[in-house]
């Protein structure tokens, strides 16, 4: 009996260790650890504020005060299913040499595994700078690393083998993983990020002048890549499909943001490497905001690399988002978006 008790205790310790800090662990060690960005707190749980990137009620004071972390995630077909994205607060999707990659931002929730992690691109510093925390990525060309360094952003690369680990059962380069515990450890005791947006209060969304119904959204974020969102009124989310299939993650969760924003940003050539084009996110332009089964034509504005992007309606009023996860498509102006 004593031997069995010890064995069970060791098994429990190993399971807890994998859930909290095993970026290179097995396929079973995936998914959110605790509530996700779309999950409301349990009833009668004391609320200590609102998470700045999701607008959701915060019940954990330590998480409310912690900084944000950003990580570059692969979206190549060989990289799917990815891990940990269901726990992200904000996800940006950008065109990258024929495919897309994600800039994934965490603050309110945790994931036991996040990946596959890939390389940085010259537009990423302008995206993540306002969030204030480190940027985690596999590596990059010397010219791009100089851009990140000049922006004053803390870099965490695969040279940091305590934070980024190669995972068995996956082929390189789609086998580099981390977890939120390891990334927040690198962020240290920084400050929480500014608010990503204003957010709607609980209850049915108010009528927004100019909003029109939208139940299905389809676009091509890269040649040969399609993204589609189907509005699920019961769950109050947009269910994501990629290339005609539900975009599911390890563990089986389907990508399901509460808000989808199409931000039209010009793609410019990176002078040190003419093959590389990146989105210019400082400035202003058109956008479409999809929330609560509707679409709102909008304008975006970002005064500087360190400023958070704002979205306003035709009258110049800030658009309040539904509390929860937000997905931002950085699309070239003129890109078609089909709404049904």
UniProtKB/TrEMBL annotation:
Recorded superkingdom: Bacteria
Tell me which residues make up the DUF3048 domain. 53-181, 227-328
- Recite the UniProt keywords alphabetically: Signal
User: What PROSITE patterns does this protein's entry cite?
Assistant: PROKAR_LIPOPROTEIN
InterPro entries in the record: DUF3048_C, DUF3048_N, YerB-like_sf
Q: Where is the signal peptide?
A: 1-27
> Which Pfam families does the entry link to?
DUF3048, DUF3048_C
Q: Where is this region: Disordered?
A: 30-50
Name under which the protein is recorded: DUF3048 domain-containing protein
């Amino acid at each position: 009996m004593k031997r069995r008790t010890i064995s069970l205790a060791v098994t429990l310790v190993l399971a807890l260790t994998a859930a909290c800090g095993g970026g290179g662990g097995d396929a079973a060690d995936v998914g959110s650890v605790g509530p996700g960005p779309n999950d409301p707190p349990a009833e009668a749980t004391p609320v200590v504020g609102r998470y700045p990137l999701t607008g959701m009620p915060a019940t954990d004071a330590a998480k409310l005060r912690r900084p944000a972390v950003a990580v570059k995630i692969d979206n190549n077909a060989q990289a799917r299913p990815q891990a940990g994205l269901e726990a992200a607060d904000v996800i940006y999707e950008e065109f990258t040499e024929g495919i897309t990659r994600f800039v994934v931002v965490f603050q309110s929730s945790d994931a036991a595994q996040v990946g596959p992690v890939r390389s940085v691109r010259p537009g990423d510093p302008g995206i993540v700078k306002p969030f204030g925390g480190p940027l985690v990525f596999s590596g990059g060309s010397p010219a791009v690393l100089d851009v990140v360094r000049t922006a004053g952003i803390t870099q965490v690369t695969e040279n940091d083998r305590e934070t980024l680990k190669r995972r068995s059962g996956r082929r390189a380069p789609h086998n580099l993983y981390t977890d939120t515990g390891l990334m927040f450890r690198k962020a240290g005791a920084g400050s929480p990020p500014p608010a990503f947006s204003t957010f709607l209060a609980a209850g049915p969304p108010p009528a927004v002048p100019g909003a029109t119904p939208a139940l299905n959204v389809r676009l091509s974020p890269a040649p040969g890549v399609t993204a589609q969102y189907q509005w699920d009124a019961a769950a109050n989310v947009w269910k994501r499909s990629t290339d005609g299939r539900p975009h599911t993650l390890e563990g089986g969760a389907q990508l399901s943001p509460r808000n989808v924003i199409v931000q039209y940003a010009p793609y410019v050539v990176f002078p040190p490497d003419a093959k590389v084009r990146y989105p210019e996110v400082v400035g202003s332009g058109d956008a479409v905001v999809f929330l609560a089964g509707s679409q709102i034509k909008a304008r975006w504005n970002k005064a500087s690399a360190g400023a958070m992007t704002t979205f306003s309606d035709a009258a110049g009023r800030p658009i309040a988002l539904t509390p929860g996860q937000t997905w931002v498509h950085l699309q070239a102006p003129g890109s078609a978006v089909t709404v049904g």
